[in-house]
């Protein structure tokens, strides 16, 4: 096979994995009401069905990149495909909420080994800068398509086969990717891989897990109860310990000095807010349309098509605007669209007409479509060129952290306020959740205005590193 053809085939293999993982982040939302009915799941159980995946994914993204550099990118990629397939198979076989949540975590362990490793494979395959830019552009387009099509595909599968199908659909796709990877993707490793940071990794897991648990379970167990207070205490302690520990390492898992760059910090904060809005929107909207409006899963998915269409139109437009005028304009549009959708949905009732909902969905589609390009640009431009890959990995982690917090926060404040039958009480109870979504949009507007100027985009210069703690440096 010619070298050029092989390179684009490798890109296609990587895009298959991206499509599968991206689809899985949104496809499950359409299955939630069916899972609730079939497995007798509680509202917090539904939140954990989504967040078990995103929390584990966010926790392991940076680690998987280091593992791939050290042990081999193709080997790590194949391991991720196998784990993701196993988790998908087991999710479809789950007989209760607890086992489904556990199997979603297995899925996420595999998913964490796919996308960041695939980016490394692409960078190693496309050495010409122009070709690499084209490849990354196609990669980004596939990411947008997978997220946009998730609700529609999920609705069709649940309607035709059942909620198990949203997991089993991954199996043939993963099998194809595994076979093609074995045949066409060469093995590669970093000449000098970064040292592993197990202590930093454990602190990241402790921070995300306890914070998410506290938010989701707080309405059930009581915000002042010992388990919830203990969770938030551990989360704060883990955050402080992570910062102090990582500052002492020569090769930290997360270099907190990066956050001295206003551009980088603004991009990460915007990623958290934007993806919190997306995940919260998909979670609440699926429950509203199916439990309150009593639409079928397929009808629910089709109603989100205006949002998906506007996302697909806005994404490439945002890239062109960033190239011509910088990230500020698309960032402000992204926040304004998100805020407009949230404000419109604060008025939903059980009898809200579909045309009103479609207007809100269009606003959100425009906003979300405008978000990703300025995020990536701001994160990378706020770092020295040699740190661009790490900056992109931290931004991806910020997206997943936002998704986990969006389901946890918006889901908790909405479901906890339901009085009477769930279907009749949910619209009014969800208003606070939609208001928080609008707040996320306003935060993105503010961050776009404050962190995207010419002064903010000066790359962060690493400060002289303090003498590393010798005990920390001995950690393998």
From TrEMBL:
Gene3D superfamilies: MFS general substrate transporter like domains (1.20.1250.20), Multidrug resistance protein D (1.20.1720.10). It is found in: Cell membrane. Pfam families: MFS_1 (PF07690). The chain crosses the membrane at residues 9-32, 44-64, 76-95, 135-153, 165-186, 198-216, 222-243, 264-289, 301-322, 329-348, 354-380, 432-450. GO terms for cellular component: plasma membrane. One of its GO terms (molecular function) is transmembrane transporter activity. One of its GO terms (biological process) is response to antibiotic. Belongs to the major facilitator superfamily. EmrB family. Its main location: membrane. CDD domains: MFS_MMR_MDR_like. It comes from the Bacteria. Residues 10-455 form the Major facilitator superfamily (MFS) profile domain. Keywords: Antibiotic resistance, Cell membrane, Membrane, Transmembrane, Transmembrane helix, Transport. This is MFS transporter. It comes from Streptomyces rapamycinicus (strain ATCC 29253 / DSM 41530 / NRRL 5491 / AYB-994). PANTHER family: MAJOR FACILITATOR SUPERFAMILY MULTIDRUG TRANSPORTER MFSC (PTHR42718:SF9). Signal peptide: none annotated. It is a multi-pass membrane protein. Residues 455-476 are annotated as: Disordered. The keyword Nuclease does not apply. The lineage of its organism: Bacteria, Bacillati, Actinomycetota, Actinomycetes, Kitasatosporales. NCBIfam families: efflux_EmrB (TIGR00711).
